[in-house]
Predict the 3D structure of the following.
Amino acid sequence: MTDYRALNRASWDDRAPAHAASADYRVNDFADDPAHLSDVVRFDLPLLGDISGLRGVHLQCHIGTDTVSLARLGATMTGVDFSPASLAEARRLSRLAGNPVEFVESDVYDAAGKLGGGGFDLVYTGIGALCWLPDIRRWARVVAELLRPGGRLFIREGHPVLWALSDPLPEGGALTLEYPYFEQAEPLVWNEGGTYVETDAEFTHNTTHEWNHGLGEIVTALIDAGMSVTGLVEHDSVPWEALRGHMRRVGNDEWQLTDRPERLPHTYTLQAVRTAV
């Protein structure tokens, strides 16, 4: 059986330096402006609330722009990722920004074993993370294990309806459900040479394995893991041009379907609390 982790890790290792060097991630702004936050975290603020003094862990943190932003909001943050190249960029960013963050190399399923269970007030997961995981129930158990009783999960993620759409859209721009909405045992296998930021870099590791997870599957997995869902908000924007040529920029570096965006849930924010044990 192909090791999906090795394939996906090689892809992220290949792309991390290009992401850090791109204008899209605005790494230098963290050094130039001590109040700068990533656009993703800035969008999250109204629902995220005050996190000062909390001990937080950011799962699948990539190059750390969101992790450092959370640290700037007063949380003591640990970032977790399985890509050593991504973590090298994240540690460099933390030094440039002047915000100390601990970064730990680990597969997300091994995070509780690496960090210890029950010690965190906040588990944060950002855009484009869950699609790399084959088993959402196993993920939910890790989240619950990391949190202390009363600790909170905060995740904003691409909506599974968006992930299920044909991309690129067919001629005429009709929204067409092409890929599985529900989690499948077998991955979607992609072979794509580019990446989602503007870059001239060329990559050699281009095969990835991905999975979709239905919203009901995610909510049920968290409940079964001992979490109580406290909020679920669906949004009509996404922080990248997910459907190229069919979206418009709408502010805060968010993108929205140009034609009748009310038809499509673009992203969602889900919050849950670990119940007392």
User: Anything to note?
Assistant: The chain is about 30% helix and 25% strand. The CA atoms of residues 164 and 180 lie 6 Å apart.
